[in-house]
Amino acid sequence: MTSYQAQCDQLLSSGKATGVAIINAIDGNTFVFGGSRFNLKDGEGGAIVSQFRYPKIALANGVIVNGIRYTAYKADSRSFYTRNGATGVALARAWKSIVIVFYNETISGPNAIFACEGAADALGKNRL
């Protein structure tokens, strides 16, 4: 069985993320977060939940994470892929949660995306 904390720790130790947050897919409250200088500002979790209900909003307006607007280049009801310069955020919905992975310029975007999707799959299999 996996847990939110276990997935967060695994993502950070894999070298495929510099920051991780796992939020409640209903209200946007944070279950767990980790990584240096990475957190969600007030209201960002709820906004992300809303954007998963209406992914076209993310494509039109971008996604704000940790106070920074990221341009979405893929957004659907399962996942968002975003970037801001050489950095980016991958977001993937699990059963009851949304996994948010931040990556900096030293990490490959596709590697971070793959890791984010894998964590969401693992959580989803456990109905988390």
From TrEMBL:
Keyword check for Cytoplasm: yes
Keywords: Actin-binding, Cytoplasm, Cytoskeleton
GO CC annotation: cell cortex; cytoskeleton
Localization: Cytoplasm, Cytoskeleton
One MF term in the entry's GO annotations: actin monomer binding
Pfam family, one: Profilin
Domain of life of the source: Eukaryota
Disulfide bond keyword on record: no
Main location: cytoplasm
Family the entry assigns: Belongs to the profilin family.
Described purpose of this protein according to its UniProt entry: Binds to actin and affects the structure of the cytoskeleton. At high concentrations, profilin prevents the polymerization of actin, whereas it enhances it at low concentrations. By binding to PIP2, it inhibits the formation of IP3 and DG.
Name of the protein in question: Profilin
Organism: Dictyostelium purpureum (Slime mold)
